[in-house]
């Protein structure tokens, strides 16, 4: 191979983020390339969650809504996510799931473009983005969806745009291929057509330095690169210029202007708080906030540089191994997020065989193997070991063992 | 007073639920009468949450979606809530907040009654029920809301019903007064008018033995009497006869028939699973499930008997003290849930003064002091001590101290 394991260890020794790995509790003997799906556990998260459970809930009980800041968690947590997506204070609200936030964003933004009845979606969008748009459009009536074809890129978007388009919903990073869109260019293109741009940042926040820029709204999750824990609160970004015009269709009491006045009628809070709905799952916010403590201390440019170097290294090593894999991720590091994907007709058993050898990736239909490189806790030597194991599984046909064929519920 | 503290201690010694109190971690010196708002911490919850964080997430990581049953949490947890509301397996799904579930229930059920354009709500409903209906109706268009006046009861409902009514949304227990509605009678009345009945069980599940019976849909929370923790997952009940007809408007991938096929179009799962939307907040489910372990072992008839006896005792003791409080809760124990409320023009500082003396209740605008009696962990002697403290705060005008006037964010 073009680079030796010892050389990878030397890269790790020079890595400016090398100490950040110590902030994570990683099981021994595992190369965890699934941080693009569920991030690793930060070492201080258990203590933070335990404090919330045992002290805030167990000792101070209901008073913690005030004294522990529970009531403000959607805003205070949102303000800590904001720098990771290029947003400012009062622009991001943490809560609900990504899917629920997509629903809020789409149904809230459509009335901003009265008379326009088309929502542009993308066959490459993560399915829930598509499903939620379909449900919203069916419920609202009189809207239609226009799909950009798979892999059509900017030209496909141009074809879909027109003066009937109310909004466009796209992912910054393609969940299958890891391809990275130019947010600023796409947002400009959509705005030139007079439409609203909503971004899904699930696969980009924490993987690349995101700049929401001129985007109108954005949503994302915190359990992937942000390491907030399984099902951690998602978030919604609403540009300040829209905050008083966009209504939250799921208008629950946590988004009311005076929630404890118990007024008979809904009256939205000012600012991003109006996008809150019901009681926040406090324990899940505690875990997320423990992770955000780490993010406050890292330089996103260093994260990006390491991500690009690690993914390039992995691609080179797999190239050198001479497998029959087809790279699904752009070779240009400027055009990808922090994952590397390969197509292989037997990708599923290959991923299972790899996991049995301690290299954890995942599989997405129909034929995509995904390997996520979370720069906060992965080392160059992990990329080396993963590429070596992948080459071996393919070279030795280890994936043909029949126990790897059986599908698990969650693939 | 009509009964002595020693007599209350004797009642506690005979209480068939007396050992259940040991399952809770209660701070010393506090009489916690806020279990109707945030239930106490079960003693085994910290360990259960820690296991989910440190082992399921920290060690097994993404594999836990399969191996720890994370993917199935909405259904498996729902099946454990079901017996508490008189429902069967496959009828309850745990997830999201109550407000989001109200939105799903209302928007999903309205198409069951095509041509009928009225939603009946109640000025006594908890505000979020009203707010969410208002948001849903505004988004869907062409529906209107008809309000039942405050305190109007069954006659008010009869006046509101008509052949234009599509659905009725009511709470079984009034959040201010604790008044208990006859679910079976109201459901029958609504069905006779041809409308859909949706119940909000937030203030009743765990407080009284609920029987969903012929109800069409129901929603509820788990952080009050069910002790699931702050912002614990809420739930939705959908009667089996409606499960294939009601669609989930917030149609996310967790409710898809084949979520890992990543199909381009939404196709709802069969059964109650279709009401799932996005990734479940796993840590919050862990806490809830620790509490449901306790609920599996208690007899709901004993819970109800103790609730009625404790609330009756409290009312008698406050009666005997000769205060100027006005009882807002029905005197007939068959007609109330598990809380006792009093009206007092200075209810807010009275509640604050009581809290300073270790008796924790809360206040609801405009003048209601609420005292929740959670039968799993409260004792008769707690009711005695609370009534004694309340009488003293009023008799000695202790609430007039100016530091009690200042409103906290969360009241």
Automatic annotation (TrEMBL), chains A, B:
Residues bound to pyridoxal 5'-phosphate: 98-99, 126-129, 200, 203, 223, 253
The keyword Transmembrane helix is annotated on this UniProt entry: no
Organism superkingdom: Bacteria
Positions carrying N6-(pyridoxal phosphate)lysine: 224
Keywords, alphabetical: Hydrolase, Pyridine nucleotide biosynthesis, Pyridoxal phosphate
Cofactor: pyridoxal 5'-phosphate
Catalytic EC class: hydrolase
Gene3D superfamilies per UniProt: Aspartate Aminotransferase, domain 1, Type I PLP-dependent aspartate aminotransferase-like (Major domain)
Keyword Hydrolase: yes
Functional pathway: Cofactor biosynthesis; NAD(+) biosynthesis; quinolinate from L-kynurenine: step 2/3; Amino-acid degradation; L-kynurenine degradation; L-alanine and anthranilate from L-kynurenine: step 1/1
Reactions this protein catalyses: 3-hydroxy-L-kynurenine + H2O = 3-hydroxyanthranilate + L-alanine + H(+); L-kynurenine + H2O = anthranilate + L-alanine + H(+)
One Pfam family here: KYNU_C
InterPro entries: Kynureninase (IPR010111), PyrdxlP-dep_Trfase (IPR015424), PyrdxlP-dep_Trfase_major (IPR015421), PyrdxlP-dep_Trfase_small (IPR015422)
E.C. numbers: 3.7.1.3
Function according to Swiss-Prot or TrEMBL: Catalyzes the cleavage of L-kynurenine (L-Kyn) and L-3-hydroxykynurenine (L-3OHKyn) into anthranilic acid (AA) and 3-hydroxyanthranilic acid (3-OHAA), respectively.
Name of the protein in question: Kynureninase
Species, as recorded: Microbispora corallina
Lineage: Bacteria, Bacillati, Actinomycetota, Actinomycetes, Streptosporangiales
